[in-house]
Amino acid sequence: MWTTILETLRSEFSDAPDAEQVTRIMTRLLLAALLGGMLGYERESHGKAAGIRTHMLVAMGAALFVLVPELGGMAVADMSRVIQGIVTGVGFLGAGAIIKRHNEEDTQGLTTAAGIWMTAAIGVACGLGRETTAVLSALLSLAVLALLPRLAGRDKH
């Protein structure tokens, strides 16, 4: 009986058959969480609602959505449908962050929505094993969020 239970448990966790695969999964998900957290911290430090936890979850979710099919053997060409779904889904999430006031000039949340969208893209890069691309994109995003308002003479987020 115990042998059957152990064999069943082993087969349930067979998607990571060795230490190399476990390391790959953890590296990609942890990097997504770290980079998403960096962007979220920047937003949270400026009093925005979508902060560290939101950005971390968006990045890790996007990474997981591409990581699982890739590990399952999905062809790279077919991955475009998965990515299209992520882009659409995160677009709806970002749309919820945008608040339109009475006049066209009074719209809030556009930068937050764009940041969530970018965080998902960084998560996709992590999930696909494009770590360098993800890190460079996160650094550039931080520069856009943190430095450009100062260079433009307004520290408004």
UniProtKB/TrEMBL annotation:
Q: What is the recorded membrane topology of this protein?
A: Multi-pass membrane protein
Q: Name the Pfam families on file.
A: MgtC
- Protein name according to UniProt: Protein MgtC
Cellular location of this protein?
A: Cell inner membrane; Cell membrane
- Mark the transmembrane ranges: 54-76, 82-99, 111-128, 134-152
Q: Which residues form a coiled coil?
A: none
Keyword list, A-Z = Cell inner membrane, Cell membrane, Membrane, Transmembrane, Transmembrane helix
Q: Where is the MgtC/SapB/SrpB/YhiD N-terminal domain?
A: 29-152
Q: What is its main location?
A: membrane
* Family assignment from sequence similarity: Belongs to the MgtC/SapB family.
What domain of life?
Answer: Bacteria
